Amino acid sequence: MPDPVIAAVGASPIGRTDLPGRDLFSVALGEAFDGLPDPADIVEAVYVGNQSESYEHQIMHGTLLAEWAGLRHVPAERVEGCAAAGALALRHAVKDVRNGEHDAVLACGVEKMTAGGTGGATDALSAAFDRAIEQRSGVTAPSQYALLAQRYLHEADATERDLAEIAVKNHDNATRNPRAQFPKAVDVETVLESDPVAPPLKLFDCAPVGDGAAAVLVTTPELAGEFDRPTVTVAGTGASANNIAVAERNMTEIAGAEVAAETAYEEAGVDAAAVDVAEVHDAFTVCEALLSEAVGFAPEGTGYQSYLPPEERADGWTDVELSTSGGLKARGHPIGATGLLQAIEAYEQLTGAAGDRAVEGADTAFLLNEGGVADAVTVAHVLTTEVSP
Known about the structure:
Peroxisomal Thiolase, Chain A, domain 1, 12 strands, alpha/beta
């Protein structure tokens, strides 16, 4: 059976907004289905990525957003994997279509993070840590990733300036992305002099809190052929769950990401060198460095060079362009929608809709979305312009 394709995408603005989650979803859905038949005439199932019910005191997001899309009596589920929720929704949609269960599935994600303020967001994100080992000690997401960053800087030939350069690169990319929460360039001194959050991580090393929604229509090539839209093929998908507590693993070996990436590459019949453009989960600048190594783009200890032009990186690096959207760092990170926002960037890159941030000649994209700290849950996808037989 031919691989599923992405035939339509849409997103709400990202950032602080007065709109509730369901209305953010309506904005994303409206963009995705502009010029298409009504969702009720196409969509046969819905998966919703949503990190936490605590922001709006709302569960049943599958039913809620199916209703909001005008759908009745279809399978509709919320999926949760902390920040990997959006990619899990996409993966479920892909598998449903690939297996012939449905011809068209809506993968969507939504988060209204600002509803609970800074304290509410901190508490909701901390629920992704091991309750017995970590939560009760008062650790937060920045402090957890600071442990990874400290260890990485100890083991690699990298400095805090190198991490700052990753932020600078991603903010520069965001200036060319109309979807970005922070489309504003920064220089390395601004990053280095920003307020400390959890040393060595500073404010500009960290992705922002924000609201947002995204919608992606996954369907068969045959059904997509009825729409006047370009498509991209989802050629491979992979997922892995590692242990939840940071204390139980090697902090600079993101093993779950390796497994998820290798599974997706194998399904797609490609390797890391074939990838032209990639969105990796840079919730903190050190993540882009670690994940570049884990998924095969960079030799061990050189992932921090992701900010350099390909020709200036160490031997063994691929020519991949990373986080062209601005990444979580500057495009924004509304948790449940993030994995789908990554897919939207890949779709736009591969269909010629990325404007002046486009990577010339790109025909293969890679997505890596993680939840919890590092690879507690990791989901990978390979997208391509090639049409499967």
